[in-house]
Amino acid sequence: MLFEFDADQRLWQDTVREVVAKECAPTFVRNVVDAGADPGQPWLRYVELGWTELTDAESAVELAIVLEELGRATDPTPYLATMTQFAPLAPAFVDPERSGTAVHEGIAAHRVGGDWVLDGSAKYVLDGDRAERLAVVTGAGVFVVPADRVDAVRSPTFDPTLHLAEVRLNGVVVEDGARSDVDPARARDIALTGVAMTTVGACQRILDLAIEHIRGREQFGQPIGSFQAVQHKAVDMHVAIERARALAYFAALAISADDPRRRVAASMAKAAAGECQSLVFRNGLQLFGAMGFTWENDLQFALKRAKAGELMLGGAAEHRALIAAARDAHEI
């Protein structure tokens, strides 16, 4: 496995970064939160550019590049849920122009004649209140359900740009043709890698803002960035981000190559991203001082997105335990 981007991937990264800077600028994100601007507006641009077609395993690294940049920008669209949760669970039902998400647990399915009936509820479903279709994981398989056949209520969350919802299915009847024949475990590896990559992007944004601040903020007649204690905090943030980024791209490579290490790699990426955000959150806030606590400071959006990434699909402690279990079972 190569750990350096080739020329095409570097060009792709530059292109994605340029588009995201235009379509999902900090002023747009703030308008979504403060003025109620349409959070799905950039989605149409992503569709137009073909970013919603990166569903093949071979495109895992290119998708990871997009996710990192969107995490860095605190993207408010349903791209993450659509590409890393719905698409891997329902590849035969993918429509590049339609959003989707996944319900990973809490739903049971039973046969009634030639159809299936789904019952149950799930909390904190990413974009469960606005996705057009849901891939519902049950013991009988994965079923694709249109959004207008479920009850979804958005849940309050500390990240105002993030949509999480409680989803209920009460006797929803779906035909057998709506069942997706996939491996939910492999799909979960993609979902974990996607959240890890987004978290890395948010952490990079925190570091970028912190570096900009300590270069311009003066104390005792000189920039605070010249103080050794401040430099150490910035360096610790950089090292943590590089470690988490390397593991996230390794997981993407493992998925792309269908490497049997992908399950452990995905947990390693998620654990590293969680540990990274903990350090970067703390140091980033401290480097900003009291300014970091103000609503007017854009730092808040990256901080909240990074923290949300740790909480989704299991935290660092849970995934470290999974890695330890894999080691004990001689899987790594």
From TrEMBL:
Protein name per UniProt: Acyl-CoA dehydrogenase family protein
Tell me which UniProt keywords the record has, alphabetically: FAD, Flavoprotein, Oxidoreductase
Q: Which cofactor does it need?
A: FAD
The protein's Enzyme Commission number: 1.-.-.-
Keyword Transmembrane helix assigned: no
Please indicate if the UniProt record lists Chloroplast as a keyword. Answer: no
Record's signal peptide: none
